[in-house]
Amino acid sequence: MDRERELLEKNDWIVECESPYEIRHKHTDSVATNHAIDSIVYAIETQPIIERLNLIKDAYLANLIDSNKFISEIIKTLEQ
Known about the structure:
- By secondary structure, the chain is an alpha+beta fold.
- It contains three helices and three strands.
- The protein has helices at 2-10, 34-61, 67-79, and strands spanning 13-18, 21-25, 31-33.
- The two termini are 23 Å apart.
């Protein structure tokens, strides 16, 4: 829970309550509880991977890399 809490706080979420588990976003005042928090943590954790995959896709669509490089970069990203 400490790692999760650190991750949330680093991304502007404030733990309002431990039981039931409730968080609030510092800037939007959005509130999440229980399983919704799991979704937020997952989104925060996977964001760098999604951004990298989008960059690879954009490079391929702009013809900056060929299909072999496209596939190898996707595989390399997903294996990290």
